[in-house]
Structure formats: structure tokens, C-alpha cells
Amino acid sequence: MDITTPSSHKAGGLPIDVVIMAAGKGTRMKSKLPKVLHRLAGRALLQHVVDTAAELSARRVVVITGHGAAQVETAVRAFSAASMGLDFVRQEPQLGTGHAVQQAVPALPDDGVVVVLSGDVPLTQADTLRQLLAACDGRQPVLLTLDMPDPTGYGRIVRQGDTVQAIVEHKDASEAQRQIKEIYSGIMAVPARLLKPWLARLDNNNAQAEYYLTDVVKFAVADGVPVVAVKTQDAVQVAGVNSPVQLAELERAYQLRLAHTLMNQGVRLADPARLDVRGTLSCDQDVDIDINCVFEGQVTLCEGVKIGAHCVIANAHIGAGAVIHPYTHIDGGAQPVQVGAGALIGPFARLRPGAVLGKEVHIGNFVEVKNATLKDGAKANHLAYVGDATLGERVNYGAGSITANYDGANKHHTEIGADVHIGSNCVLIAPVTIGEGGTVGGGSVITKNTAPGALTVARAKQVSLSNWQRPVKKK
Ligand code: UD1
Ligand code: MG
């Protein structure tokens, strides 16, 4: 027994090699960006396909590029794990799907099963491909097919009983063949040792003068190799993106599925049609999410978290029982934001990278926090900036106060001890330390460290002139 390679790496004992066709132009997108780099749920279409190949533990992933090749290759390298057996093959000019896969032949070992995918069909699930590989069993070609109410434009599956005789492209099909509802999805699995000689036999004597990959079926039948069709009921998994409309439709289909998965885990969504997850959202028990929230990157919502309407939350960990009020923007970027248990955030709050908030911290409207730690019970409730700072336990940070962290060249730190009270409209010019338990009078500009427990007022003294006469307007 081979104990070094898990069985999931293999199809009927053979290694899996994935070919992804991504050379097409995508004219109908009407965009300068290559079609396969348009995003669905925050990931490039092609990235979805590469990630699915990774889920299959493919030995090799060969991406066929053409239009925008350099841009596509750079993008795929950036989002793929370095450990992946990734290869690029260029197809120039693009003479059809068969011609595309022909370009990959030198990169494909003879001992594997080749799974052909398209870079613009993003939502195929690894489990569906595993079914295909099981049916292939390392011996025979398998096609993923689908019954379509309106099969116009697709390749039709011509059968004799259970066995597939041919795939006939719409443009080449007879009237009788066009009545067939079963179509080829564009996805197949074929042992490389069979595929390679069939590819060598392709010609372009057809209505589109293209080299059709689908013609390999014809050669299999001629060679007496049975061709199997595995039918899926799930159109979303084989849907391609050709236009902005199709991209938006598939995005909604993806989001609705994800919303249902979350609800089945117990998450309460005010409206499953108004949720967008562009990354990974993990939720514990009793989470409530109001309408129109967007989650990006890695977001964790612990038990009992409530997210108000219209929040955008990226790369953040929200502690148990915290409430994020409407219109809050949280973006942890490379330094994920942490919100402590029982914290109250917003409405209209902004938490930026490196914001680390302890238990029961309160951040109110129009308060911005960046690269700053607020310890348990600290509060900044109105109109404030806290950047490059540490606020101790129970600090009360007044309305309109800011840490002046930037001297025009460098960033400096502000340290505020536990139980400090910062009045309204203060400027704390960093680097500076406010001693524990101290108070800073409203309107102060603090440039020097203050002692623990002291009241510090740094503003012009109030002057009142009694019986002062206002100037009188000259006639
Ligand atoms: C193909 C199938 C058709 C199937 C349909 C499913 C063939 C001949 N026909 O048709 O049976 O029902 O998919 O969607 O395969 N590409 C290249 N290089 C090329 C041509 C295409 O990389 O020279 C890529 C495209 O970018 C795309 C994929 O291959 O990602 C499929 O090409 P497309 O033109 O969409 O195939 P269809 O003609 O729709
Ligand atoms: Mg075509």
C-alpha cells in the first residue's frame, strides 16, 4: 500500500492533472481586464478554479493562457500556494478548445488522468469532480453533462442507450440533434494515455473551423473505448461567465447558497438576499446579521454577536456578545482587528488595521481607531481619532480628541494610563504619556508627559472683562 500519497490524490489509482482553459478573450465582458480575472465573491474567476484543483490535490495544474497572458499568469502566481505544481502554457492564436488542450500536452505526464476545466466556470465543486474521477476509474473518458430547458449554443450529447456516441456542437447539429436537451458542460476527465493520441487526430473541418476538444468522443467511440456521461442537476456548478449580467447572476447564486449554509448553521440573517461574503465568514451560535452587510477576508463572529445594517467588515475577530451598530466600517487588512467580548461599536465607527479592543470597549460615531489598543472598558464615544496609541482600562476619551501621531516624517506612540479622563477636543502630541488616573482638561494641547493622578490643563487661561463695551458702528 502506498502510504505516502493519500487516496484522494488519485483517480482509479492514477494521479490527477488539471488543465484549465483560460485563453479566450471574453469579448462580451467589454472590459480591459481579462475575463478570468473578474471577481466573484472577492476572488478572480480563475482563482476559484485553481482553488478547486487544489482541493482535488491535483499533481499538476496547467493553465492555458492567451488573451492578457502575462497579466493572468502574474495574478495566478500571486494567489496560488508556492507548493502547487503550477504550469502555464500559452495558446496563440486561439484555434479552439481542442487546440488549447493540445498546447498542454508537453506539460502532461502519460500516467495521469486529465481533468479539463474552464477558467470562466468558477463554481464547480470538488465533490462533483470526484464523482467524475470515480466514473473514469483511470480507464475511460467521462463527461459532465446537464439537462437544459434551452440548450441553444451548447454541445449536445448524442447517446445510444447509456453510451455516449458524440458531442455535436450547436452550429454543427442537425435539427433533430438540436432537440436534445442534454448538453456537455465543458468539463471532462480522460486518462492522459488515451487523450494524447486523440488530440493528435483533431481537425477543424466543422462549422466554426475550430479544433474542438469535444471531437475526442468521436475517436473514443471509433477506438471502442466507452464514453461515460455523469449528469449533474446543478446548473450553477457548470455555469460560465461571459457577460457582466452572467457574472452578477452567478454572484447572487453563490451568495444565496452561502447565506443558506450560514442559516442552516443557526445564523440569523435579516435577508439572505442581502448578504455578501467575499472571503470566509465563521459564526458561532446566535449571531444576528442585519441587511446589506459585506464581509471580506477572514471574519469571525463569536457567540451572540449582532451586526447592524450596512456594515463592511474585513479581516476581523468580533468577540462574544459584541454589538456592531449600523454603518460601521472595519478593515483589519494585514493586522486583523480584534473586538473584545461585549464591546459596542458604532454607528458610523471606523476600525483600521491593528485596532485591538478589549472587553466592553465602546467606540461611538465618527471615531477612527488605527494601530491602537484600548483595554477593557475604555470608551471613545464621539468624533475622535485614536492612532498609534495604548489606552488603559476604563479610559474615557472625550469627544473630538485626537492623538497627533505623525510629525510629518515619523509616527509616534501615545500612552494613556488606566482610568485617565481625556476631556473634549484635546490634542495629544505624540510621543507622550498621560499618567494613570490623570485628567486632561478639555481643549488642551498636550506636549509633555503628565504625572499619575494629576489634572493637566494646557490652554489659554480664561479672561473676562466686566462692563466691556462693544465697538459701535461709525455713521
Ligand atoms: C464549449 C464546448 C461545448 C460546451 C460548452 C460549455 C467545445 C468545442 N465546445 O463550447 O460543447 O457545451 O463549451 O460551455 O469545446 N478557450 C481557450 N482557447 C480557445 C478556445 C476556448 O482557452 O481557443 C477557452 C475559453 O476561454 C473558455 C473555454 O475554453 O474558457 C470554453 O470555450 P468557449 O468558446 O466558451 O466554448 P464554447 O464554444 O462555448
Ligand atoms: Mg466558442
What's the architecture of the largest domain, going by CATH? Alpha-Beta Complex
- Largest sheet: number of strands, sense, barrel closure: 11 strands, parallel
Query: Order of strands across the biggest sheet?
Result: 13-15-17-19-22-25-27-29-32-35-37
**Domain module tally:** 2
CATH class of the largest domain: Alpha Beta
The count of DSSP E runs of length 2 or more, i.e. the number of strands, is 37
Span between termini:
109 Å
Strand content: 25-35%
Bound molecules: uridine-diphosphate-N-acetylglucosamine, magnesium ion
- What is the general shape? elongated
Q: Could you say what the CATH topology of the largest domain is called?
A: Spore Coat Polysaccharide Biosynthesis Protein SpsA, Chain A
Q: What's the average pLDDT?
A: 96
Helix share, percent: 10-25%
Residue stretches low in confidence (pLDDT < 50, at least 5 long) are 1-8
Number of helices: 9
CATH superfamily grouping of the largest domain: Spore Coat Polysaccharide Biosynthesis Protein SpsA, Chain A
Structural class: alpha/beta
Question: What keyword list fits this structure?
Answer:
475 residues; alpha/beta; Spore Coat Polysaccharide Biosynthesis Protein SpsA, Chain A; UDP N-Acetylglucosamine Acyltransferase, domain 1; 2 domains; 11-stranded parallel β-sheet; 8-stranded mixed β-sheet; 37 strands; 18% helix; 32% strand; disordered N terminus; binds uridine-diphosphate-N-acetylglucosamine; binds magnesium ion
What is shown here, in short?
With 475 residues, the protein is of the alpha/beta class. It folds into 2 domains: 10-238, Spore Coat Polysaccharide Biosynthesis Protein SpsA, Chain A (Alpha-Beta Complex); 266-456, Hexapeptide repeat proteins (UDP N-Acetylglucosamine Acyltransferase, domain 1, 3 Solenoid).
